[in-house]
Amino acid sequence: MKKGLSIFVAVLLLIVVAIPSFAQRRKVTVWCTDKEVAGIEPLKKVFKRDKKVDVEIEIQAEPRSKYISAAKAGTAPDILVGAHDWVGELAKNGVIAEINLTQDQIKKYYDLTIRGYTYNGKIYGIPYDFEALVIFYNKRKIKEVPKTWEDLLTVAKGMTRDGEFGFLYGVNNDFHRNFPFFGSQDSYIFKEAGNGRYNIQDVGLDNDGAIRAGNFIYRLVKEGVVPSSTNNGTVESSFKDGKVAMVMDGCWNYKTYLETIGKDNLGVAKLPTLNGKPSRSFIGARGFMINNASKSMDFAKDFVINYVGEKDGQVDMFNAGGRPPAHIEAAKVVSANNPHIRIMIESAMDGVLMPNVKAMAVVWNYAGGMIDKFNTGETSVENSLKTACNTIRTELGGKNAARYE
What we know:
This protein has 405 residues and is an alpha/beta fold. The chain contains 18 helices and 16 strands.
């Protein structure tokens, strides 16, 4: 009898001890930027209602840089929200989990968004939006956007005076904002090798098309349309303050501009053509990745796949955050009565998926600076591009190649 009572007491103690531990696990932590909190909040409430699981959101200014070290220290969140081009580095470091989806689930999303989260044939994230650069314009200043960059330069030049501008974009030390010119002229970063792979030894940012693109960028600066010091902060504040008619900017600022310029006055247009060829913006998908060592793996997967990843969830995220959904049916819903969103989606479909390999870090180190060097007159367009690309090839070559793929 005493032995039986002792066993009962021991089991009871184990249950009492386990209950708080179990309760603590009924939550998932999410790292994201401040611009993504609004979009996640509606899903957080629904998940709490349905599953009785808390979603704790932590804002991180630079989540990518902190995540790997936090993962190695065992302090990383269950879920990381970030860009698709982080995937290569994170997967290679073993700090994000593979997400197994059926073919029917995969077909729910725009193909390029799933490809963005695919590395070495495995899927490592659920995309919730995809974005390209477009032209935002103030209808009080200009009725429509010219169809070619050549015409836009002429029109903008005539509007630039007394502290106001016809057109601005973040030309300063920002290769992302400058890439549409390169993409339009058949320039490329790395040659695609199929199945989500890239030949990082084949860099195409100094070919003939790249030189044509660089010469046009230099024209925009030299002819006084876009000052060489213009950064993204200047673009955003100038447009909101009514000091510029047209800006090239990302879909992520759509909601901000809608609120400041007003629904009736804000226009959205696809990027113009250059030398008769369509502009090709970088396409960036953003999505939810799961910590490979998450202690709430089942909850994390449920939240990411069945809430973030479904049509209703992505519609809710758009309504709260304003980013075009990666889910095809959700995109149809939000764009049905919104021509702006339709233009953003069409622009993205014309674009170039940003490579998700680690080698992109080397490109970012030099590509923005190579544009600044010719814009400030330090060297010629051709010399700047050739020098930077040769440096990139050298850093990615030889024994370094394997760790950058």
